[in-house]
Amino acid sequence: MKTAPVNTDKHENPVDELYALLERQVQMLRNNRYREFEELIEKTNAVTAEIAQHPPPPAPQLNARARQIKKLYNELLLMIEVEKDSVEKQLQKIAYGKRTLQVYQNK
């Protein structure tokens, strides 16, 4: 006799799971844990695809959760933009340093 697979995730609802994953992504970025952040992106994409294939029925609490998800997503976008700017500034400093070294090597 076959048994049904056991859901080992804390969240039975994929929308709640998506929210939890986005929260974890925010925490990973705040703690500069980029590798774990990237791993969560894969999980988040899978849950998002699942929701897209099997949308949940409309419900009032779902609207509230959707607003929360949108807020977290916007926060993630802002955090990523800040990190991107930081990396670009660091790359500019490195490029300046390389040019300076080349000037001294050519003298």
Mean pLDDT over the residues: 87
Give a short account of the largest sheet: none
What is the global morphology? elongated
Distance between the termini: 82 Å
Task: Describe it.
Helix content is 79%, strand content 0%. It has helices at residues 14-30, 34-53, 60-106. Helix 1 (14-30) runs antiparallel to helix 2 and helix 1 (14-30) packs parallel to helix 3. Mean pLDDT is 87; it is low at 1-9.
Topology (SSEs and partners):
Blueprint: H1 14-30, H2 34-53, H3 60-106
Helix pairs in contact: 1-2, 1-3
Describe the structure in brief.
Helix content is 79%, strand content 0%. The chain contains 3 helices and no strands.
Task: List the defining traits of the structure above.
3 helices, 107 residues, mainly alpha
